[in-house]
Amino acid sequence: MTDPAAQYDPYAQQQGYGPPPGYGGSPVAARYVPPTLDEVWYKATPNMLLYFFTCGIWGAAWAYRTHDDLQKHNGEGIGGAIGLVLGLLAAIVIGFTVPMELEKAYNRNGWPSPVKATDGLWLLIPIAGPFIWYPKVQTALNAYWVSQGSRPAGA
Fold it and tell me: CB–CB of 151/37 below 8 Å?
């Protein structure tokens, strides 16, 4: 029996092992993944407290780090610098951009995303909205990084 991929890939071998080394296929560049989730950037409670005590400035730093990580990993996205500017000048936009980029990352792997850009609407609910939005987004972000090889916090 021949490999079904052989009809699409002229280099596919009969046993289904794919093309010989150095031929066919697309080279996959190593993608950035945070080595560990032990840093403060990946912990919900410290981030929420820092955001509160710095009157939102920490949120811009978190936006920088999160968008930068996702851009380095995916090879596209708004990146850290634009994330920082948005975090400082139009913080509400971050509530939509982070879930949007995270959703794209999940979808690239063929997985359903636990967050969507519309989750940013939670931030429009005074007081309670951020307490719903941030843990939801950070949990999805951490789960994605662990699935990509990051060491979970405390491991």
Answer: yes
Beta-carbon-side half-sphere exposure of residue 49 (alpha carbons within 13 Å): 5
Residues of the chain with pLDDT under 70: 1-30
Query: What's the pTM value of the predicted model, to 2 decimals?
Result: 0.78
Helices 91-108 and 79-89 pack at an angle, to 10 degrees, of 150
Question: Where do the structural domains in the chain lie, given as residue ranges?
Answer: 40-145
**What is the per-residue pLDDT across 75-84, written as a single tens digit (0 to 9) for each?**
999 999 999 9
The DSSP bridge partners found for residue 151 are 36
The encoded tokens of residue 105 equal 């990352």
Cα 149–chain centre separation: 13
Query: What is the predicted pLDDT for the residue at 31?
Result: 85
78-89 burial by CB neighbour count: b if 16+ within 10 A, else e?
Answer: bebebbbebbbe
**Signed CA dihedral, 104, 137, 97, 60: sign only:** negative
